[in-house]
Design goal:
GO terms for molecular function: G protein-coupled receptor activity; olfactory receptor activity. InterPro entries: GPCR_Rhodpsn, GPCR_Rhodpsn_7TM, Olfact_rcpt, Olfactory_GPCR. Belongs to the G-protein coupled receptor 1 family. This protein is 65% helix and 4% strand. The chain is mainly alpha-helical and 208 residues long. The chain has a three-stranded mixed β-sheet with strand order 2-1-3. Helix 2 runs antiparallel to helix 3, helix 2 packs antiparallel against helix 5 and helix 3 runs antiparallel to helix 7.
Length: 208
């Protein structure tokens, strides 16, 4: 059995070790983050303040904006900090939190099969599917639209989507960090995610 030691932190791989490239990356990601964050916040405020937009479609659009904000806030600022300070280390608890929030943020966007493949994450596809159903009802059953998709139904669908994603994410995060990490502790990306953690784990996961 290989000699194992507890990994207390992970090394994130930045885009480059060149200082000029790091500064360029910081500026580009800062601009992209501010645009995305501001755009999603504006969507939320416009929908809240405009009573004409208090419809199921815009209700789910607000939920999508929240998932986008959570996702970019979980991944982009840390990447910018790595480029600005050249400190590529992330603590074990920080990596756990990042994995949990990344999966939760995007968990509804994908179908079950894609989620199982860890390619993306769970919150948006569920909401996109619900929004497609919302448009179907509005077009095909306009007279029954307000009855079928009332606010109670919308709230139940959104809560179900978020709760199911949180449960799934909790399970995946717990299972991932029960693995042994004995080194090297280098994650081949600029944020923690499950596929990269599986690559550096010394636990045999081939039969799992």
């Amino acid at each position: 059995m290989a000699n194992q030691s507890t990994v207390m932190e992970f090394l994130l791989m930045g885009f480059s070790d060149d200082h000029n490239v790091q500064l360029l990356h910081f500026v580009m990601f800062l601009f992209t983050y501010l645009v995305a964050f501001t755009g999603n916040v504006l969507i939320i405020f416009v929908v809240i303040l405009n009573h004409h937009l208090h419809t199921p479609m815009y209700f789910f659009l607000v939920n999508l904006s929240l998932t986008d904000i959570c996702y970019i806030t979980t991944t982009v600022p840390k990447s910018m900090a790595v480029s600005l300070t050249n400190n590529k280390m992330i603590t074990f608890p920080g990596c756990v939190a990042q994995v949990f929030l990344v999966i939760t943020s995007v968990c509804s966007e994908l179908s079950l099969l894609t989620i199982m493949a860890y390619d993306r994450v769970c919150s948006e596809l569920s909401l996109l599917t619900i929004m497609a159903y919302d448009r179907y009802v509005a077009i095909c059953h306009p007279l029954q639209y307000s009855f079928i998709l009332n606010w109670d139904t919308c709230n139940q669908m959104a809560v179900t989507s978020w709760v199911s994603c949180l449960l799934y994410t909790s399970l995946q995060t717990v299972m991932t960090f029960q693995l042994n990490f004995c080194g090297p502790n280098t994650i081949g990306q600029f944020f923690c995610n499950i596929p990269q953690l599986l690559k550096i784990s010394c636990t045999d996961t081939k039969n799992d």
